[in-house]
Amino acid sequence: MTRLMKLISTEKTLHPESINAIDFLKEQHREVEKLFREFDEASDRAFKRRQRIFEEISHKLSCHARIEEKIFYPEGKPVDKDFTLESYEEHDVMKSLLRKISHTEPSDESFKAKMTVLKEVVEHHVKEEENEFFPRMTKELGEDRLLALGSEMKKEFEKLDSKHPEPKIRHTKQANAR
Questions:
Q1: Burial (0-12, 13-18, 19+ Cβ within 10 Å), 166
Q2: Is 5 part of a structural domain of the chain?
Q3: Is residue 137 in some structural domain?
Q4: What is the mean pLDDT of residues 107-121?
């Protein structure tokens, strides 16, 4: 066993909560993908359910974007400046869509269409991140740095996540008719 492998093994034994930053981000990607599937499977008349799922997606994406922008992307800028700058812009598009959707009633005919566009933006971002950026980050930063970043990101995410309010169910005529 090499010295580096022993250090990594020791780090994981001493700090079992440690997680590689990329693995942590991928776990979050899978969680949001699952929520989008739940949204897609909800019936067209399931307004309360769609609202609850949207609020969960919005919260997860907002926290995820925050830790990427605050912790991960500053580390990534020297690795791939163009990709990092593009990612900030994609996050701005996503946040704009989240704001628009939050001001749209789930019963509005455009609600589902806006969610579909959000899903497509997120899928595009995730695909590029996982297929292009993450492999470069792994190569350039190495396991030790990714573990340190992962711990920092997880701590920040948990702090942000703890501030998540209970989902609000809008009380509209259509929602109350259910």
A1: exposed
A2: no
A3: yes
A4: 96
Give how many domains the chain has, as a whole number. 1
**Residue 8 counted as domain residue:** no
| Residue 144 structural domain | 18-176
pLDDT digits (tens, 9 = 90+) for 126-153: 999 999 999 999 999 999 999 999 999 9
Chain-centre distance of CA 4, in angstroms? 31
In whole angstroms, give the CA distance from residue 56 to residue 58. 5
Structure tokens at 134: 């993450």
Confidence of residue 169 (pLDDT cuts 50, 70, 90): very low
List Cβ neighbours of 170 (8 Å cut-off, separation of 6 or more). Answer: 51, 105, 106
For residue 63, give every residue at least 6 positions away whose Cβ sits within 8 Å of its Cβ, in sequence order, or none: 157, 160, 161, 164
**Is 160 among the domain residues?**
yes
- What pTM does this model have? 0.82
pLDDT in the model for residue 163: 82
**Residues 115 and 53: beta-carbon distance below 8 Å:** no
| pLDDT confidence band for 158 (50 / 70 / 90) | very high
CB under 8 Å, gap of 24 or more: what pairs does 131-136 form?
132/83, 133/76, 133/79, 133/80, 133/83, 133/87, 134/22, 134/25, 134/26, 136/79, 136/80
